Fold:
Amino acid sequence: MQSKLLSRRDVEFLLYEWLDVEALARRLRFHDHNRESFDAAIDTAEQIATELFAPHNKKNDQQEPHVGPGGVVQIIPEVKQALDAFSAAGLMAAGQDYEMGGMQLPYTVERVLAGYFTAANVATAAYTFLTMANANTLLKCGTAEQIEAYVKPMLEGRYFGTMCLSEPQAGSSLSDISTRAEPDGEGRYRLSGNKMWISAGEHELAENIVHLVLAKIPGPDSKLVPGVKGISLFLVPKFLPGGERNDIALAGLNHKMGNRGTTNCLLNFGEGSRRPGGKPGAVGWLVGQPQQGLANMFHMMNEARIGVGLGATMLGYTGYLHALDYARNRPQGRHPAAKDPSAPQLPIIEHTDVRRMLLAQKAYVEGALGLVMYSARLVDEQHTAEAPEARERATRLLEFLTPITKSWPSQWCVEANSLAIQVHGGYGYTREYNVEQFYRDNRLNAIHEGTHGIHGLDLLGRKVALQDGALFKSYAAELRATVSRARAADGGELAGHAGALDAAWSRVEEVTRALYAAGDMNKTLANATVYLEAVGHVVVAWIWLEQALVAARAAPDDFYLGKLQACRYFYNWELPKVHSQLDLLASLDTTTLDMRDAWF
Amino acid sequence: MQSKLLSRRDVEFLLYEWLDVEALARRLRFHDHNRESFDAAIDTAEQIATELFAPHNKKNDQQEPHVGPGGVVQIIPEVKQALDAFSAAGLMAAGQDYEMGGMQLPYTVERVLAGYFTAANVATAAYTFLTMANANTLLKCGTAEQIEAYVKPMLEGRYFGTMCLSEPQAGSSLSDISTRAEPDGEGRYRLSGNKMWISAGEHELAENIVHLVLAKIPGPDSKLVPGVKGISLFLVPKFLPGGERNDIALAGLNHKMGNRGTTNCLLNFGEGSRRPGGKPGAVGWLVGQPQQGLANMFHMMNEARIGVGLGATMLGYTGYLHALDYARNRPQGRHPAAKDPSAPQLPIIEHTDVRRMLLAQKAYVEGALGLVMYSARLVDEQHTAEAPEARERATRLLEFLTPITKSWPSQWCVEANSLAIQVHGGYGYTREYNVEQFYRDNRLNAIHEGTHGIHGLDLLGRKVALQDGALFKSYAAELRATVSRARAADGGELAGHAGALDAAWSRVEEVTRALYAAGDMNKTLANATVYLEAVGHVVVAWIWLEQALVAARAAPDDFYLGKLQACRYFYNWELPKVHSQLDLLASLDTTTLDMRDAWF
Structure:
């Protein structure tokens, strides 16, 4: 039976026919690898995801973690079994150095592995992603002792990690965090404060939980420095090296619409030891330099955001494959012109409107996966390209694309999930089927790791302007190179798409200039979300043209014809949507800026 | 505190300033009424909805009905308390004749009452809507005995009703139903078959449940006539007149993503009595003429569809009011230009992107409510206008608009609910807040009472062509009259909106002609959903211009300025979206029609 997690044929197309991941094996870091070793790793991931992650996805949603006797978080046993198998297969360290026990797989391949787990069970997979992100942060900024004591057990899957940024009063506005870290005079710190939305913040799935916590070290006047400048990063383990429990209390679990299987916690640091006699605060160690906390945490932010884009994509992708399977097997109705009511009913895929919903899903999820994989390939370039210029180019492209790689799938793959429900009709709206959970799970992605609106501000307000527009220009050069190739390779349909893409990008350039000429940043940024969405659609159109160029070169078969049809769908149905958005931006519309509280 | 269900000021604006509902009181049927009596009825609804329906909305979602000991459906007690209060206030018969114990309220006012209950608790309110629809069907097609025995207790709230159309193998394709109704020779029928998706199909909330069941009477060869022609309508009560339980078994409850508080059932008719010796089949009575079942059921279909549009609207509306309240009270972040990180955080409504999300919600939900109320007003015209031409005109407009009144809110008010979550950030994604439930509840509306795609086929394939285009032309005349009034009344902004509306409608006319000139119904109808969505957006732009014309006439205050700003939003941000859709339709695009199963 064909996998309902991810199309292996599509993965092969992206990795080997488009992104030439085999070429990475010629680099020193990956020289033990080749297509066979990549495929073997993917086989392993697909197998564990299918056999151990997917089967409890619904159960973990329906029997979500809860606080049991003694304040212990109860989680169904299948979660630990799956995670143990993940770790035992070495997947926690798939991309790490051999000396850390890793496989030194390219990031692009490692993202495919991650994709299978997210598609199978986003809630259980989250424990691994958080642990890997935590380990990567410590590897970058931690001391040798911290790496030895905490990273190694995390990469073995014995310890799990978290990222503790938000607080109840400081969500998007991290500069307002008020968790305090007081030096204890023995080289350690004592932390006190409340951390909100901490995924995997408490559980019994691992021997220890390694919290990476943003906090502020008070000044000599014992006051906290306002703003982001005062923020430092701390390592605060659930269990201290002696085995003693640190002063971190689970104040409550959040009950989410989706992603229910991942514990999501309000954690109180240093509350239990405020009692007289106790030394107040949870024990922690500084990671990296003081006041560099946000920069240290943000080292991993591009990759965390690619991770969100991947998660959104994979939920869309598995939903699409579920809808496709249903549409091929559910008989219902007849063609509009059919007159004989006693003729057998048709599989619903025969109805044009059902094909529309499937083709839209295909265009969204395969477009999104292309974007995510392209971004992942840039990470490999950034880390391992031989020429410094190649690394710099990759960095510029990655910086420019990251807000889109995070946001576009978070918007359009939820739409894909909605269409997957619609294909199923009433059945899709029930928990007896799988697609409603994907829809609920996926709705998170436009919120965490920077809300949708914040990525609009990041793209238009920051990335476009950085380095005198160098990021923007680097991307423009990539897009125009694709346009040229399409024009050269094909006198027909793809050349037409290239013309449409070129025209849309020229309008993006024009609109960007007009926005920056507004002379008032409030006006420039007023419609930044529309800018993010319009540029995102143009970027995914470019990804589709890239895929179509590969497909058009091959001997036509069903797979390539499907790629070309999905590209056609994107150019006929989706890309034209950007023009009304670009018109709005060009007009410097102030409707939302002018709206007043009292008028609502 | 301002209601978070519905803005009373907006209701008054729609009823009294725009739709002139007071004029209805001059008609014979409503001559006991006036604005005071309408307002008193609305007060009652608002109070019961607020005090008895809203408080258990979350509880009924979290503790959904389940099958308990002895096969009895367990429902939290608050549901019955709320429904009893609803009936005791006479609301089940609000629109009915005095002789039926009703209040003879206009349908438009009665829809406002219904709106409050849906906003407060869509799952509990569903029991009332189904009962009222059932009663209306019997009043139209039933015998005097049926009305006496079943309608009267329903209008008193002692009996509840259902509509049993779908079967597991026949959802959208009603022609394939296979429930059999065999005459028993004593004027009754014996029904056997399985009915799926039966809302309120089983419960202990009322003394009896009155099922209206579509079934086929076998021919002399004991075969069922294929197609819709063989369908008849039957009244099949849970308890027979002697008090004996009819042979209707609850085969299972469906577990939905939202609307969890309404039982949704698979019912087996006539299964228990198949045992030897028992007379097989559930006992039922024919309603209306044989083989007229679908026509009899569809008498109520326009109103049922307005009901779905209203439900979708109200979930969007209450979500908007929740988001507005949150945005006014949640401090987070500062203006982009603010440099002082120690300045207090701003309420998030101060951020332009949050205002964008609120203004979009306002434009969607107030636009949708306008459309639903306009449609309801047409129902009053259809039933009570004095001149036959006025009734005919109302009927034509209603037939044309109904697919849009059902579908547009079902699409855009879910989008409003998604934006309400987004305004709340992470909190909105948790079940500790209310908006995630609205989002889940609302996703049903594009599925039931005809899926979104089916309404596209209804609009383009049927309504547009009916009576040689007379419905379409009637609506065009309404729209053009509004355009003329806007041009005459206002030389400024509204005249500009009128020009945009006129241009968009001219393109709709052009595209409609082009689609019918395609010469192949498969091609004409291939993109019918896009047609539905594009025409829907133009229709709601028209509704907004209607509202703005009223607002522009009044002395400006915050309320009217808000209406004008929302209208501006719709014309600057929303209406321009239709042009890429109309271009696609004009091109007779066959991308989805040409897509093949094997290419997916």
